[in-house]
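Intended use. Records like the one below are meant for learning the mapping from a protein sequence to its folded structure. Do not use them to infer anything beyond what is encoded.
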Amino acid sequence: MADATGEHPRRFGVAALMQATEGVHFPVSREKLVLERGEREVEFRHGHTEKLRVILLRCGDCEGFASFEDLLSQIEDLA
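Structure written out for the chain above:
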């Protein structure tokens, strides 16, 4: 939702990941998520922004994600 200036507020943490994956239908493979949403910027840790693709590719054992909660649990220590 835009603020009074018409800008979208910057989100971080879970909210940033939710915004980056909005509209994704789970379960989803890591490959599909990288292709569809990999270029989206995620500020998972406050003050540290990177592309979702970079975070997902660091998760070497991640084949796919059953739900948003599964995605979050698998990448929360990688971001």
